[in-house]
Amino acid sequence: MHAGGASDWRSIPNALDTASFFQNKGNRKLQFMISIMIMSEFLCGFDGTIVGSLQALPSWQLDLNYPTGARLGLLNAMSSITGCLIGPFNAYVCDRWGRRWPLRFYGFTMCLGTVIGVLAGTKSGNAGFGLFLASKAIIGAGMQCGLVTAMICLQEITHPRHRVVCAAIFDPSWYLGSCIASCICYGTSSMSTSWSWRIPYLIQLVPAVYILFATFLIPETPRFLISKGREDEAFAFLVEYHGNGNPNDELVQFEFEEMKQTLLMEKEVASQSFMQVFNAPGNKRRFILAALMTFCPQLNGSSIISFYYTTMLKLVGISDAGTLLGINSGLLLFQFLVMIAASFALPYMRRRAAVLGTWPVLVAALAALMACTAVYEKSGNTNKGASIATVAMVWVFSGVAGITGPIFYSYPAEVLNYATRAKGMAVWSVVNQCCGIFSSFVNSIGLDNAGYKYYAFYIALLPCQWALMYYFMVETKGYTLEEIAMAFEGDSAAVATVVHKLEDDNSDKKV
Question: Cβ(155)–Cβ(94) under 8 Å?
Fold first, then answer.
């Protein structure tokens, strides 16, 4: 036993100990499954950056009749609005019909929305803004279902020794997609026709088609199969993908027994209503954490950079389209590298300490960013040093925020046990989309009316977020997915009984 009562599962022999990656066919097939989940977030990053990057292109502005202020805010917020409306239904679909259908829905809506969006402004008199708005609405409806389900799947299908890293690289893949989208927009920005923005938008079809069709080639997650009484299929999954085809693999047997017995003990909770689940011991904290883990990164100030970096940099005299896209591409690549490094360091990091240590630095960086912009304005828009310092502080803020990025996207699904995972992620989804609506719509109005002074809102909000995370966060380092429940309920958790039983059985076998 270690890590507050968790089992010493790392020492249990497994196929990974004896077979290399090229010898382990099951592990290679598992990586294909994981690639679908990662591609879901990659595509989200690609699409999420498109509107921000396209704002710098004159042809896009012309085709959409120069959206600004509330119209631009609505355009940015539309995906979040439809995602917020459809997100709660995703929990029911996931628990009733499985994890694959929301992923297929995501791929389909992305294909449909992309085709509609690329038609915006193609004919004289065509309502280009309306078509592009409809495109974002359709994309948003499927995107939130797909992302939430992908986060769940990453926790439920990955090998226990790789779970933390695989779940952590989910968020960096957003920045990879975002960086590639920005680079493509930069490459097409020299084109004078509307193809300068239609080409980047059309490219979304490639990952969307991959997600749509690849999900027909993969099985359901073993935890879902066990919850439906399909234990033989669940064991076959673990044997093939975690044990390289060996049904006698000791870690596979340990995983299966821990999953089966824990889910059996949680089965009564899984069938209860949302309020019954919410009121169960430990679950209030789980749901609050699910909401907090998207509220904090969404509303820590980084959304201004993600959606309105063009507006931010224009406040300090940087307005050339090529320069704006170039700075953004470099920033996104930098964020991706920071987050990849953080993802591989995550198994050795204490999640709670990392988050609490980062937030004060974000306050200082955002305050410095605000001060640099103020100095530039007071100089009569002539202080180039302040302009350069503003760009530098954007990079500092983004780099520091990137250190904890992988935590915020892996932590919610792992602190929710199977009985609460789909329902809890529905809470995450609603809060995520509400924050997205605020970030997309309100930020636009705030920047238009207050300029750099609007940053003060986030400077005041960050300490409040720190206090909430200090009070609610629990440490999850060192646990298997099932054993994290012991960080909430201790020995009264269902899995605690299972762990003690499995360890006793293992000791008897050795004797």
Answer: no
DSSP conformation class of 350? -
Distances (CA, A) of 416 to 110, 121, 181, 413: 28, 45, 33, 5
Would you state the structure tokens that stand for residue 338, as one six-digit string?
């920071």
Q: Per residue of the chain (511 residues), what is the pLDDT tens digit?
A: 444 555 566 778 888 888 888 889 999 999 999 999 999 999 998 998 787 778 778 888 888 888 877 787 788 778 888 888 887 788 788 888 989 999 999 999 999 999 999 988 766 544 688 899 999 999 999 998 898 899 889 888 999 888 888 888 888 898 888 888 878 888 888 888 889 899 999 999 999 999 999 999 999 999 899 988 899 999 999 999 999 999 999 999 988 988 888 787 666 555 555 666 666 667 888 889 989 999 999 899 888 877 677 777 888 888 777 787 778 778 888 888 998 998 888 888 888 999 999 999 999 999 998 998 889 888 888 888 888 888 888 899 989 998 888 888 888 888 887 777 878 888 888 888 888 778 877 887 888 888 888 889 999 999 999 999 999 998 888 777 777 777 776 665 555 555 555 555 555 555 4
Token pair of 154, please? Answer: 């990453």
Q: Are 408 and 294 in contact (CB under 8 A)?
A: yes
Q: Which residues of 325-344 are buried (b: 16+ CB within 10 A; e: fewer)?
A: bebbbbbbbbbbbbbbebbe
Using CA atoms, how far apart are residues 316 and 311, in angstroms rounded to an integer? Answer: 9
What token pair was written down for 362? 């974000």
Instruction: Quickly list H helices, 271-350.
Output: 274-279, 283-298, 302-314, 321-345
Orientation of helix 384-415 relative to helix 321-345, angle to 10°: 40
User: Whose CA is closest to 150, among 402, 358, 428, 365?
Assistant: 428
Helix, strand, coil percentages for the chain (3-state, nearest 5): 80, 0, 20
Taking the C-alpha atoms of 251, 255, 256 and 260 in order, what is their torsion angle to the nearest 10 degrees?
160
Contact in structure between 67 and 51 (CB atoms under 8 Å): no
Q: Helix (H) and strand (E) counts for the chain?
A: 23, 0
- Measured CA to CA in angstroms, residue 195 lies from 38, 54, 466 at distances of 28, 11, 45
Q: Are 249 and 243 within 8 A, CB to CB?
A: yes
Q: Which two structure tokens, joined as six digits, stand for 386?
A: 């302040």
Closest CA to 410 of 467, 461, 342, 466: 342
DSSP 399-460: HHHHHHHHHHHHHHHHHS-HHHHHHHHHHHHHHHHHHHHIIIIIHHHHHHHHGGGGHHHHHH
Strand partners, 2: 6
Backbone phi, psi, residue 262, to 5°: -70, -45
- Inter-residue contact 72 to 407 (CB < 8 Å): no
Write the DSSP symbol of residue 481: T
